[in-house]
Structure formats: C-alpha cells, structure tokens
Amino acid sequence: MKIALELLAPAKNLEFGKAAIDSGADAVYIGAKEFGARLAAGNSLSDIAELVNYAHLFNAKVFVTINTILFDNELEKAEKLIHELYKIKVDALIIQDMAILEMSLPPIAIHASTQTNNYTLDKVKFLESVGVNRVILARELSYNQIKEIRQSTKVDLEYFIHGALCVSLSGQCYMSHHVGKRSANRGTCAQPCRLKYKMVDASNKTVIAEKHLLSLKDLNNSDNIERIAELGITSFKIEGRLKDISYVKNITTWYSEKLNQLIENNHKYTRASSGKSSKSFISAPEKSFNRGFSTYFFDDRQKGITSFNTSKSIGESIGLVKSIEKDHITLSSDIKIANGDGLCFFDSNNNLCGFRINRVEGNKLFHSSVKGIKTGIELFRNHNQEFEKELSRETVSRKIDVYMSLQSTECGLSLTITDTDNNSVCNQIEIEKEAVKSPERQKESIVTNLKKTGNTVFEVTEIDADEIDFFVPASVITNLRRDTLEMLHNYRIENYKTEENNIVVNNEPYPQSEVDYKANVTNKLSQQFYQRHQTTVKEKGFELLTNTNNKELMTTRHCLKFEAGICPKHHHTNGGFSEPMYLISDGNSFQLEFDCKNCLMKVISTSK
Fold this sequence. Notes:
By secondary structure, the chain is α/β, with parallel strands linked by helices. Among the domains are: 3-165 and 217-279, TIM Barrel (Alpha-Beta Barrel); 293-391, Elongation Factor Tu (Ef-tu), domain 3, CATH 2.40.30; 400-494, no CATH class. Helix content is 23%, strand content 27%. A hairpin with a 3-residue loop joins strand 15 and strand 16 (328-331). It is globular.
C-alpha cells in the first residue's frame, strides 16, 4: 500500500480555507469561535461546517484547534464545543490541555498540538500510549531526533515545514504573560520575542549590542521534503493562521508542487486527498512574508537562523544599488519592478529602511525620498504590487476528473458518472421518443453539452455516449448533466468517512514523577489527568501564579552565547565575559541561564 502524504495548510477563515484546498492542501487547520491559540482567528460553526463539506469533496480534512489551556469555568463550554464540532464532521481536534482527555468525548480524532511540548521521545511515547491519533512534533527537532522518535513509535507524526518560528519551545513560553498578562498558552501572545534587546554580562559589559536578539528567521524546508518523508513524517505543516490569503495560496501551491514532484519520482508515495489543483501564477516563497529563511535545527545547530536586524518581513532580494540620483536609483539587475512596489534595505547601522516606488523606467526606480541608501547596498522587495494583485483574484482552482457514460434505455436515457476515486452515480430519466433527423450531429451536440461542468468541482476527461436515434432536447441533457453531477457531489460528501479516535483511559506513568507550572495545569481535569498518570502536580499553571519572579519564561535551543562566538562547546572561550548574563529592553531585564549539556538557553524572570 502506498504511503499517503498530507500537506496541511493554515486557514484564518472560511475563504482562506477554501483557497488552501484549491491550492492543493490535503488538510487545513482552523480555529473555532473559542479556545484556539490564535485568538484573532476564530470562526463560527456554520463557517467551519461549510469548509468541512468543501474539503470532504476532495477527501481533504479539516482539523480544528482547541489548543489553549482551559480554566475551570471553561471546561463545560469546551466540551460542548467539541461535541458540536463532531456533529459537523470535523476530522480532528488539535489540543494542548490534557483536561480534554478527561472529558466525555465523542469518537473524534485527537492530535497533540506542538503546544504540548513534544520535544522528547518519552513525551511522544506517552502521548501514543494514551491514544492520541497524531503528535505534532516540536519545530526544534533535528533529523536524527525525528528519526529516533519514528523508529520507536507508531503514532502518526506531523512536522512543520514552513513559516514563522517561535523561539521558545512551544507551550513553554511565558514571557508575554509575565510582561503584559497576554498569555501565549491562551491565544493572546504579544510576541515580546520580536522586540529589541541588548545582552550584557554580570558587570554590565555589552556582549551583543541592542538588536532583535530573540527574533528568528522563518522556516523553509523546501529542499528537505524528500528527507522528511523518508523519516516517516506523513503530515507536512505550514504555519500561518494569521497570514493573508496571498501567503496561503503562494506557499501552499509551492509545497503542493514539491510533494507532487516527490511522488512522481517515488511511486511508493501518494497524496492524501483527491483532485488536481491549477494556478495562474508562479509560486515563490520569497515573495510572501518572510524574515529570511533557514532550516532551523533540522540539520543540527548552525549559524544563520536569526533575524537580529529586524523582526519585519524583508521579502525577496532584487539586486544591488548600482547608482544613486536625486529622484531615482539604478538597480544592478533586470528584475521587473512595478509602480507601488515596497522596497527595503539595511543602512550602515543595520536598521531596516523602506520606501515605495513611484515610477519605473527599465532598471531606474523613481521614488519620493530615501535616506541612508548607498551604492552597493542590497535591495529587497517586501511588497510585490503585481504579485499581490494577481493573487487577490481567483488564481487557484481544483477539479476532480470524471468519466461519463450516456446510454439510451427502453424508456429514455441513463447517465452514469464515475470519478477518479471510483465513486459512481447513475441517473435515469424518461423521455418521449421522437425520431431525430441526424443522430450523428445530435451526438456531437450532446457530447459538447455534457462537457460543460460549469462551477462544479468536476472536470470531464472522457465521455462514452450512444448514438441516440430519438430526439433529445438540449435542455434535457443540460438538466440531466446538472442533476447527476449534483448527485455525485452529494455522494462524495455523504460517503466521506472520518477517522475515529482510540483514546485509552489508563494509568500509564507520565515521563516525569512530578511537574511544575510548565505542565500548564490550570483546571481540575488536567490535575486529575496527571494524578491518574502517577504524577505529582507541584504548582498550578503560570497564568494562575500570583508571583512569577524567578521563573523560566522561555526555554530555547537558540543560544546567544553561540551567536556571540563565546560558546564553551563550539568556540572554547567565554570572550572575557562574566556570568550571569542578562537581556535588557525598555525597562525589562531578564537573566539568562545556559544549559550547555543539553544545548538550551533559558530566559528567567529575575531582574538585574
């Protein structure tokens, strides 16, 4: 049996979800009206139901995020929502709070969100033992770590391949709540990791001058798709539930084509859904929002994963500044630039500066005013006017191939339509038979009519039509075709089978004998879960603590000692700096601790 590969795309709302499906996604993930880790991306049940029906037409799936931690007064509401989602045939829930596993659940598939901190083999094995259908792996995991997990487990694995990176281990970041009471685990992260910080040592000596020291480049695993598939990952996830629709179309079509190329070259794989996507543009990840790209830790620790100079999108490199005049600059390349394009560059102080193009003459770019630009500086385009305009239109579509067979019967006509998945419907009608003058000409007209599938998701690839010796009005064929296609449309939705869960109520020991606030226990059911799994809960979740000083606000594989060239493992020097070290920004200071044995950096709420 072939291995089905799933491209999983983000959906901010119904429109974006349909666009993702049309762009080639095998599944989409979307937030419900509450309890999603992106509070600004909630959706009504009716919209989710419509998306479910549309996705299921293509055997594509819809996963709904219930991946915030819950308070006691929200448990009943969350459980009710889960039952409502099951009724509209949502394919799976993406959860963070273990309280959900203690609820009276319908038989809906459960995916353990990356927010459950799926960073170790022991954690993945535990989640498998309690019966979750899928584990979404931590973004920080390397090729070898994933390989170890895959070889030791059988649970379905999902892995991020593209998009923005949280610098902290997911589910373990408390900085936003500590600074401004906006909890990342409650869907309201203020992204303090994207602010500017300077790093100083114990004597206040500057280690790294003020930059965006916790800001990372975006993930792009375009070149690793085959390697990830060979590891045994079956779901390839794109980040971006808050991104715009052009991002969804561009990035989804890009990776859909990558998977198609892989399948074309290796026949042991197949796509997890049906239908063929088409588009009217050339996909290019660098043309969508990005802070530059890296593969993060997929090939272990390496330089070039940070975006120290800006936390904003820089877009695509378009060349160097060849010359500068009063009202225009000349570009070194012949890349096409349009009026209204947004360009940017880093000045001599590495500050990101931007400007708009008013007029273009060849490689001469006219502008109103630009400060700090010099010849030889690299230019980036972070707003591509023509590309955005093109993607705002109906630029993607998805069709299912069908075969039609029209035959005459004793009482009239029979139309059978069979799709590429071997779903078949037959529609028979009675018609008064009157002689026709030219059966051959009528057959040509009938075949032409049958090919007109209009706004349906179907595309006719073959028609087998009898030469009918009685007169058939064109309107009869039109109605027969329309009604039979509607039958097939409904048949595909009604006969779609969702995966059921296999949650196991057991006492399997949790990997740790005791847990603290980082277990995110904020309600009685999650407390009950850990107790049942033989774990002592030492303290409540961070959001319920009255004193958050001296707490780890963030744990990350991104190490500022490594970036500063003073890592004892890699550089064998401390650079003359003394510890402890601190991050300082706008009146806030945080102590840094370095777990060199495990190559982790921790941000502590202790002030300098």
